[in-house]
Design brief:
By secondary structure, this protein is of the alpha+beta class. Helices cover 22% and strands 38% of the residues. The protein has a six-stranded mixed sheet, with helices on one face.
């Protein structure tokens, strides 16, 4: 049975896909990488991003983030990451260098 956090994450991903955020992104060597095209992006190539936080149903400290990212070349994608002590500090630092953030 899917837990509430996964359900919210899945629903949010479906909605973002309807909005054009279809590419899956990876974080490798301090760059975002499109999993399909293999295009690589530095933080200065990100136009905007939205951040969604999800809290674990049974353990509120088990949190995750979902970033919806639009690049200056017009491509859009998502990347999810653990939040808190299990999180990827390098990814957080990367996103912190992005100039334009939507809430």
């Amino acid at each position: 049975m899917e837990n509430q956090e996964q359900s919210h994450l899945s629903n949010t991903l479906k909605q973002l896909e309807k909005e054009g955020y279809k590419d899956q992104l990876l974080f490798r060597e301090n760059q975002l990488v499109n999993a399909t095209t293999k295009n690589k992006y530095d933080s200065d190539q990100v136009a905007t991003y939205k951040e969604h936080r999800f809290e674990g149903m049974t353990n509120p400290s088990d949190m995750s983030l979902l970033f919806a990212i639009e690049f200056k070349d017009g491509s859009k994608g998502t990347i999810s990451a653990a939040y808190g002590p299990k999180g990827d500090v390098d990814l957080y630092n990367f996103m912190g260098r992005v100039d334009n953030k939507e809430s």
